[in-house]
Write a sequence for this structure.
């Protein structure tokens, strides 16, 4: 009990923020739902609470580390690299738009910048579309942090999607008990299916030293064709050549988010994504399990020397990565009106995840932001049609951003070179001072 | 005076630190001039300035009496300056001749033409008694011969001034002897040599004069013949250094580690790399396994620590058979291991200092609860060890290990392994690449552990270390133990013969 009190005492601002955001997002909108004015007040409050918390965190940080130099922070340098990549991509897009239609270039460009923040509907859609991207991004990022390159997110996503839809179609009896149970089991099933699919290249890598890139990319195709067989065998709607409709109970609940973003397709998927961000962040940064996983990723020999079971960790890592990708599949297809189809096409979201992971610097929170940014651009592309541009211009911009972030290493050295000189000075001075003290 | 190279009042600054502060180096024609200093004293910077890799802020360089501006390594080559690097820059799947001419190839109608080149190499190799086989591949010849190739490479380019960077680090005592001869022969032929080193015995043996640097500052130049080794060491370190490691006679008691007919089979080369090795290590003694690199010591230690599977035999620690235990079980049972390669095994370079200090103990109650790391405990632990082992770094416990100096990285490992307080401490080349001060420190730690009743197993390639630190010596050659000695009753030369495989005793 005292421990909880202790925690509350020291994190009071954080706890208040989380509780009030929870109320503002999921509880109050349903009370205010009759009045536009109250809903707008509610939205304003969300922004205010969020901003207050960020400012508070920043001030606490300054207070705790008064001598912190931003130039010394490698994280900041990395973030700058991503930002530069984004700027390069946008500039490239602008140049392209000038070639296509000079008159509309500038207004079109501002539409892209505005992106999902155009209106409440586009904001809701941006959140909705970014969920699977965030999740596949997290999947790739988690594996990457542990030294593995999971290109198989697409396959794991496909397997997860099938498991979710199968349970969604056939698991009606669960919905009779409680609608959330049906949905929960479907998501869990997707996680397990994706996890198994991810574990296969993990096992091959750990015990037979098969490159996980090759194994997972080939399993993408296996998953694709297997999916076709499974759909046509078990849950086929012959009339429309697609999977049967899922039961309404298994659709992802909206948790009242539809009230905040009316007429948009937003659902509770973002809640799942945020929870997984938190879980992965905690695993990687706070647990012995994460300590082992990262050690294996950074230096397999040293982890072996320290007695860690590198093989087991590789399998676990791929399994978790696959499970997250599987849940991405559930989020895509546990939606009324969306259908899994027996088409021989690899689902694009898995590959986009690689790009998002890169842009988000393989950091769970970074991936969340990068995924939302991607969603925003997508919405911007949608509105571009007002200016006679094809929405595909967004794909080009994103492609350039990805190229640029793949060159992040180069960009970072560019940034580092500017900052490093100062950092070295500081470090060297410290060591020299220490040695002077040592000599005394 | 007839100086071939004069570097006068060189100052080279890096942001925040003066790597060379008013340093002067004068090289006479036909002499061997040693450049002495600890790691980070500014030797490499000075040579990089001479090589045109850095431009000095102040000071001038004169070659053959004329002031020159060396702006890149090509200028240095044109002036006849050549460098034999510590880590050879050779292409392993090229032949000796191909490596020597690399970058200076003759061509005829666009095709490579080796005939004249080989003739020149052969005459050079006779002139300087540098025996090489021009047609063998680099990957097939010994390290000593690779070094000769490096030297020939410089001579082939008509270098007048040769810089040797730590040339003896990788050689056997006999090869070192040979190299010394070669260097003297070269000076007789009119070449001038700069020898970068921190091994004082070699300077005493071969050099004419010696310039000393300390923390970027020029300390002085002495005539080697009139200066004692102790005096040079004092100039280098800035205080008196004891080479004789002070230690009492060992008082061995109970057996801690028993290695019983241990063999390790290597599938790739299809032979036993460790053959039927047996020995015991007792509490309160330092057993040293001496031998030239690559004679099975690495595999022997890997078999004891569990990194490699043994094909035969047993490893017993305190009456507990470890032969089939996992690495973690062996570590927990009481094996501390300072590994040979600190970057490959000893550290996770991208982890912070404090994270590296718990690499062997993160799973214990002290540092985790229910799978969650206790960051406060980890931090305090790091601060304590930094304090007691005097580990220096830019940002304390949160310094990334990669950014630390080699000596301090090694201290991190030593601190971690000693702190675990196990019965057996295995130290594999614990002083490799460290400077005199750090070596002295690590030797003291090993002896302190011995005196505290630990069993210490030391693997070393340095004969000085073997002779000074150990209480008992076993020599390994081609995977077998070829002799056991008491350091009081054996000479370095004798050990050298056993290490080179020309003598063996059946015991």
């Amino acid at each position: 009990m005292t421990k909880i009190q202790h925690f509350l005492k020291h994190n009071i601002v954080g706890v208040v923020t989380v509780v009030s955001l929870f109320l503002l997002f999921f509880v109050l909108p349903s009370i205010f739902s009759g009045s536009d004015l109250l809903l707008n007040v509610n939205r304003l409050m969300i922004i205010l609470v969020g901003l207050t918390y960020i400012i508070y965190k920043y001030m606490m940080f300054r207070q705790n580390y008064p001598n912190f130099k931003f130039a010394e922070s490698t994280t900041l340098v990395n973030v700058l690299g991503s930002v530069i990549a984004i700027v390069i991509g946008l500039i490239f897009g602008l140049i392209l738009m000038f070639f296509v239609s000079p008159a509309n270039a500038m207004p079109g460009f501002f539409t892209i910048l505005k992106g999902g923040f155009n209106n409440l509907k586009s904001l809701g859609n941006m959140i909705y579309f970014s969920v699977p991207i965030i999740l596949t991004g997290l999947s790739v990022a988690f594996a990457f942090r542990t030294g593995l390159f999971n290109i198989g997110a697409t396959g794991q996503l496909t397997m997860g999607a099938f498991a979710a839809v199968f349970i969604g179609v056939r698991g009606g009896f669960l919905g009779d008990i409680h609608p959330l149970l049906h949905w929960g089991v479907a998501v869990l099933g997707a996680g397990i299916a994706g996890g198994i699919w991810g574990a296969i290249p993990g096992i091959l890598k750990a015990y037979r030293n098969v490159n996980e890139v090759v194994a997972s990319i080939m399993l993408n195709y296996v998953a694709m064709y297997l999916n076709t067989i499974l759909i046509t065998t078990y849950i086929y709607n012959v009339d429309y050549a697609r999977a049967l409709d899922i039961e309404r109970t298994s659709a992802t609940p909206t948790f009242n988010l539809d009230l905040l973003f009316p007429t948009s397709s937003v659902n509770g998927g973002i809640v799942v994504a945020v929870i997984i961000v938190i879980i992965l962040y905690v695993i990687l940064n706070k647990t012995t399990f994460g300590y082992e996983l990262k050690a294996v990723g950074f230096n397999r020999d040293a982890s072996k020397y320290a007695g860690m079971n590198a093989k087991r960790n590789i399998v676990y890592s791929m399994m978790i990565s696959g499970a997250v990708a599987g849940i991405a599949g559930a989020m895509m297809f546990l939606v009324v009106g969306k259908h899994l189809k027996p088409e021989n096409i690899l689902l694009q979201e898995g590959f986009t995840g690689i790009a998002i992971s890169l842009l988000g610097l393989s950091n769970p929170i970074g991936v969340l932001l990068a995924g939302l940014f991607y969603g925003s651009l997508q919405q911007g592309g949608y509105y571009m049609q007002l200016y006679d541009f094809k929405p595909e211009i967004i794909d080009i911009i994103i492609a350039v951003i990805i190229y640029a972030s793949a060159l992040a290493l180069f960009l970072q050295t560019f940034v580092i070179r500017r900052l490093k000189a100062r950092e070295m000075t500081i470090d060297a001075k410290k060591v020299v001072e220490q040695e002077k003290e040592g000599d005394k | 005076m007839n100086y071939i190279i004069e570097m006068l009042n060189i100052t080279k600054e890096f942001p925040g630190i003066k790597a060379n502060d008013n340093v002067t180096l004068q090289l006479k024609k036909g002499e061997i001039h040693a450049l002495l200093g600890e790691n980070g004293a500014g030797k490499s910077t000075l040579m990089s300035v001479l090589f045109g890799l850095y431009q000095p802020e102040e000071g001038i360089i004169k070659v053959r009496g004329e002031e020159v501006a060396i702006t890149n390594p090509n200028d240095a080559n044109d002036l006849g300056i050549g460098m034999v690097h510590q880590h050879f820059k050779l292409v392993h799947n090229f032949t000796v001749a191909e490596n020597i001419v690399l970058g200076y190839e003759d061509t005829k109608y666009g095709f490579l033409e080796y005939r004249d080149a080989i003739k020149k190499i052969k005459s050079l190799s006779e002139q300087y008694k540098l025996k090489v086989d021009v047609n063998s591949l680099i990957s097939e010849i010994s390290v000593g011969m690779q070094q000769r190739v490096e030297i020939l490479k410089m001579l082939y380019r008509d270098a007048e001034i040769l810089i040797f960077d730590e040339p003896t680090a990788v050689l056997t005592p006999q090869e070192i002897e040979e190299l010394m001869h070669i260097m003297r022969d070269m000076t007789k032929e009119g070449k001038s040599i700069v020898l970068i080193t921190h091994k004082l015995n070699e300077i005493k043996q071969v050099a004419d004069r010696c310039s000393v640097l300390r923390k970027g500052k020029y300390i002085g130049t002495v005539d080697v013949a009139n200066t004692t080794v102790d005096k040079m060491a004092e100039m280098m370190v800035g205080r008196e250094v004891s080479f004789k490691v002070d230690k009492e006679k060992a008082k061995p008691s109970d057996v801690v580690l028993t290695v019983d007919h241990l063999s390790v089979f290597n599938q790739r080369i299809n032979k036993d790399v460790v053959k039927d090795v047996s020995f015991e290590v007792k509490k309160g003694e330092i057993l040293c396994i001496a031998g030239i690199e690559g004679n099975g010591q690495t595999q022997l230690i890997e078999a004891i620590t569990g990194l490699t599977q043994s094909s035969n035999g047993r490893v017993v620690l305190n009456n507990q058979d470890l032969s089939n235990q996992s690495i973690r079980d062996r570590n927990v049972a009481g094996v501390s291991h300072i590994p040979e390669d600190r970057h490959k095994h000893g550290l996770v370079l991208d982890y912070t200092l404090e994270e590296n200090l718990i690499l062997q103990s993160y799973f214990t109650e002290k540092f985790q609860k229910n799978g969650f790391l206790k960051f406060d405990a980890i931090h305090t632990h790091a601060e304590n060890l930094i304090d007691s082992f005097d580990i220096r770094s830019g940002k304390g416990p949160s310094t990334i290990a990669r950014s630390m100096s080699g000596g301090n990285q090694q201290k991190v490992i030593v601190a971690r392994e000693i702190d675990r307080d196990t019965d057996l401490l295995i130290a594999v080349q614990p002083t490799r690449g460290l400077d005199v001060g750090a070596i002295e420190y690590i030797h003291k730690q090993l002896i302190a552990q011995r005196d505290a009743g630990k069993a210490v197993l030391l693997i070393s390639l340095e004969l000085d270390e073997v002779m000074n630190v150990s209480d008992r010596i076993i020599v390994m050659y081609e995977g077998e133990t070829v002799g056991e000695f008491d350091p009081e009753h054996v000479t370095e030369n004798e050990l050298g013969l056993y290490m080179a495989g020309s003598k063996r005793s059946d015991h």
In short: Residues 102-388 of chain A form a domain with the ABC transporter involved in vitamin B12 uptake, BtuC fold (CATH 1.10.3470). The beta strands of chain A are 236-237, 242-243. The radius of gyration of chain A is 24 Å.
